[in-house]
TrEMBL record:
GO terms for cellular component: cytosol. Signal peptide: none annotated. PANTHER family: HTH-TYPE TRANSCRIPTIONAL REGULATOR, METHYLPHOSPHONATE SYNTHASE. Keywords: DNA-binding. SUPFAM superfamilies: lambda repressor-like DNA-binding domains. PROSITE patterns: HTH_CROC1. Residues 123-139 have a biased composition (Basic and acidic residues). Residues 1-23, 123-145 are annotated as: Disordered. SMART domains: HTH_XRE (SM00530). One of its GO terms (molecular function) is DNA-binding transcription factor activity. Pfam families: HTH_3. This is Putative transcriptional regulator.
Length: 145
């Protein structure tokens, strides 16, 4: 369980959502309320407009990965947690790595976000390489050999 900094109340950000993609707006709203900040304050801290954030919280708009990262930073939760809640990451595919990053108290929020982004970049790159191998029937040449 992670406690929001300066909030005084605890919001369980590790609890498994029932329906992650449709739950993200309510999750963001719960985190914001738990942190005792207004919609306008969160919008300003995350660099998004007040009406846009309101639409996200009400489930009318689906935020991009970039906006989710900005909201995670403003709400002081890890980006992987936000991505999992939004359905951008599948916890079943790589629960160990993402959970370890999210749970590591020795890492700063920025470090957690960087590690998650690097990890996901490598996974996407490897998936593309595997697709190329399947299409061409051989491994691509490695310039470092």
């Amino acid at each position: 369980m992670q406690e929001l900094a300066g909030a005084g109340s605890v919001v369980d950000v590790t609890e498994e959502p029932k329906d992650p993609p449709r739950d993200i707006g309510g999750f963001i709203r719960d985190l914001r309320r738990g942190a005792r900040i207004s919609l306008r304050q969160l919008a300003e801290q995350a660099g998004v407009s007040n009406p846009y954030l309101s639409q996200i919280e009400r489930g009318l708009r689906k935020p991009s990965a970039e906006v989710l990262a900005q909201l995670a930073s403003a709400l002081r939760v890890s980006t992987p947690v936000m991505y999992l809640r939004a359905g951008l990451l599948d916890a079943k595919d790589n629960p160990g790595v993402l959970a370890a990053i999210a749970a590591d108290a020795d890492l700063t929020l920025a470090q957690k976000q960087s590690l998650t982004q690097i990890y996901e970049t490598f996974r996407r790159e490897n998936a593309r390489t595997k697709e190329d191998q399947d299409v061409h029937g051989h491994e691509p040449e490695d310039e470092d050999r």
